[in-house]
Every structure is written in C-alpha cells, then in structure tokens.
Design brief:
The protein is mostly helical. 95% of the residues lie in helices and 0% in strands. The protein contains one helix and no strands. The relative contact order is 0.06.
Length: 55
C-alpha cells in the first residue's frame, strides 16, 4: 500500500466511526428528551392532584 492509500483509508475509517458515534448520540438525546417530557407531565399531574385534594 502506498502512503496516500493508507492515509485515505485511515481518514475514511475515522469518518465512519464519527458518523456512527454521532448517530448514536442523536438517539440518546432524543430518548433523554422523551424521558424529560414524561417527567414534566408526571410532575404536572402530581401538582394537579395535590391542588384538587386541597379544595
């Protein structure tokens, strides 16, 4: 292999690894967003429940 081909292969491998890493981060961030949204909904429901029981 020539040095240029080795370098090109290494750059391609790094780019593929970065793309896979970034795509998995996107899924994780989306999941965290869903979890936080559910936590906010649960907190609001609990607040309404407390407010209704006080009346």
């Amino acid at each position: 292999m020539t040095a240029t081909l080795q370098r090109s292969t290494a750059v391609l491998a790094v780019l593929v690894a970065m793309a896979l890493g970034l795509s998995s981060c996107g899924n994780t961030i989306r999941g965290i967003g869903n979890d936080l949204g559910n936590a906010v909904d649960a907190t609001q429901d609990a607040g309404r429940s407390v407010a209704n029981s006080v009346r």
